[in-house]
Design brief:
This protein has about 130 residues and is mostly helical. The protein is rod-shaped and about 80 Å long.
């Protein structure tokens, strides 16, 4: 009669059973790693939802205005004119990039909020019909 090989730690479990245990724990790890805010139904304030894009838009607008001022200084000041001509457009483009990114981010968040509300509604509906 052939005996199954013993595992290195001396336990009698076969390697196949260990794979099943690790695969089960892997799925629970995946489930526990999900964000809690996605699964909780606690409503958040508008500021909690939109504070990051509002900050990005504000910083972008400020940098864009700073770039406008520096670019206009190159027209009025002849001393260090090359510095103003080089740095002004750089601040303009950086500010415009941040401004556009923040403005695009807001509709994306709105769409996610609508999808989350639909998902919560469908979960409640499903639990109502299947948990009877």
């Amino acid at each position: 009669m052939e005996m199954p090989p013993k595992s290195p730690d001396g336990s009698e479990k076969s390697p196949q059973s260990k794979e099943l245990i690790t695969s089960r724990t892997g799925s629970t790890l995946c489930m526990s790693s999900r964000s809690e805010s996605v699964w909780t139904s606690a409503s958040r304030s508008k500021w909690d939802i939109y504070h990051k894009p509002v900050i990005v838009v504000s910083v972008g607008a400020a940098i864009f205005l700073f770039g406008t001022v520096i670019t206009s200084l190159s027209c009025f000041l002849t001393k260090n004119e090359n510095v103003y001509k080089m740095s002004g457009p750089a601040f303009l483009s950086l500010g415009l990039m941040l401004l556009v990114c923040g403005l695009v981010w807001i509709p994306i968040i709105r769409k996610k909020q609508k999808q989350r509300q639909k998902s919560q509604f469908l979960q409640r509906l499903k639990s109502f019909f299947f948990n009877r």
